[in-house]
Amino acid sequence: MEQTYLLETHLFEDIARTQGLDASVLSPQTWPFSLDWLPRSTYLVGGNVRDALLGRRADYLDLDFVMPEGAVKVAKAIATHYQAGFVLLDAERQIARVVFEKATVDFAQQVGDSLEEDLHRRDFTVNAIAYSPHTQEVLDPLQGAIALRQQVIQMIAPENLKEDPLRLLRAYRQAAQLGFTLEPNTRKTIQHLATLLQEIAAERVQGEIGYLLSTAKGTPFLAMAWQDGLLKHWFPHATAIGLQQLGQIDEAAVTLSKTWGATGLELSGWLRDQHKTSGTGRSWLKISKLSCLVSPEPSRAEQELWRLKYSRAEIQAVLTAIHWLPQICAVEAEPLSLRDQYNLFRGVGSAFPALAALAMAWGTSLAAIAPLIERFLQPEDPVAHPAAPLTGKDLMTQLNLPPGRQIGQLLEAIQLARAEGEIETRQEALELAMTLVKPRLPSQ
Q1: What dihedral angle (degrees, nearest 10) is formed by the CA atoms of 63, 190, 140, 217?
Q2: CA atoms of 199 and 321, how far apart (whole Å)
């Protein structure tokens, strides 16, 4: 192997010395299968090599291997032996996946006649480093280790970005994820190719955007992606003001988390994705940020979100936040009555944390919104979480009423009366219901 291929291998040696090879993803001891299953021509490639050289660790392993031939055969044999899941991802390109309980392992046949040619087809130099688990050699023909040291995301070639335009957006996501910057020529090339992103499947675009929305580290890079034209097709109504508000939501999240995070907001999933770092899944922080990127007109906002393949629940949460924003911002001028608070919580439901962060980004003070947050965090609060002290069955039995809309209306009236402090007990609720029904009962 030529010396140029082994450029900067002292980075690997530093990792092995400081954190121990046994603790690194580069060590077969951390894998869910034995190294003996891999031919000696197998190399570990991609993000896991990059992260290992950076000393980054993850609880869930995501490994990528390339080999000159037999990739699917090796994957199937490992899956069979370890009783793991097997998925044939691409029969033509010979790519397969083995799914373990705490690891996903991809096996692919190398592209081209050599591993070096395969590495030259990848997206960025930091992802074009290969490691041999058999010999512990690092193959780095594109000097990705230098980019790691300089902390830059640098493309390999414009043609590689054109081959899969999602890589245009992935550059910003990986820069945010790693705390890196974009190499200037790489960014200029992305700007030139930006319109190609609209050709990519919406689900893939949403995944990259999801990570940028779910963390404060992603906010400046999402703004940069917008400036560079990558979001024009997907968020045609996004504005400089809307992008600026994303940072203000991050600031609101810090304030709210410091004040209430340990007592409930964080537990409700409002800051964190409910899936791993893939960016998929829902966090209320992400919902509030999406509200700043779409059209303020609900029907257009809905169309934009459907086009990006967001779920019905996510779309409804965004539309709810947009609809109720003026009402919650009004508390800055005058506190809401109990009835208005009741109606707000009934309308917003579990999306309230997203609305709270959004309202603060629009200038509502913490002091003005705090009473509403306190109510939301109390499961028994009759205003934020109304519950009638009796059931519909109780009403039908006690008042001899048939099932139907009237039962729901009576329960709603009882809940509102309880929220306003007019009633508390089951007997008081029943008496109120009798009063409301009495005019409709036949005369004696």
Answers
A1: -60
A2: 30
Q: How far apart are CA 312 and CA 305, in angstroms?
A: 9
Q: Please name the residue that has the structure tokens 């003026």.
A: 326
Percent of the chain with pLDDT over 70: 89
| CA separation, residue 432 to residues 423, 428, 435 (Å) | 8, 6, 5
- Looking at residue 65, the DSSP 8-state letter turns out to be E
205: Cα separation from own chain's centroid: 12
Instruction: Record the tokens describing residue 59, joined without a space.
Output: 């609880």
404: CB partners within 8 A, 6+ apart = none
Among 134, 181, 116, 142, CA closest to 8: 142
| Encoded tokens for 295 | 């059209």
Q: What whole-number distance in Å separates Cα of residue 441 and Cα of residue 437?
A: 7
Which region among 231-235, 248-252, 264-268, 346-350 has the lowest average model confidence (pLDDT)? 264-268
Q: Where are the beta strands (DSSP E) in 79-232?
A: 85-90, 95-100, 103-109, 130-131, 138-139, 152-153, 181-182
Determine the pLDDT at residue 199.
Answer: 94
User: What is the separation of C-alpha 360 from the centre of its chain, rounded to a whole number of angstroms?
Assistant: 21
8 Å CB contact between 339 and 416? yes
Largest CA distance in the chain: 104
Can you give the pLDDT at residue 280?
A: 38
| Alpha-carbon gap, residue 174 to 183, rounded angstroms | 13
pLDDT tens digits, 343-397: 999 999 989 989 999 999 999 999 999 999 999 989 899 999 998 889 999 899 9
Q: Give, rounded to a whole angstrom, the gap between the first and last alpha carbons of the chain.
A: 103
Nearby residues of 380 by Cβ (< 8 Å), 6 or more positions away: none
Helix extents (H) in 16-93: 47-54, 71-82
Paired tokens of 304: 């934009």
Report pLDDT digits (tens) over 165-181. 999 999 999 999 999 99
- Taking the mean position of all CA atoms in its chain, how far away is CA 90? 26
pTM for the full predicted model: 0.85
Q: What is the pLDDT of residues 144-165, one digit of tens each?
A: 999 999 999 999 999 999 999 9
In this structure, what token pair is assigned to residue 393? 């069955």
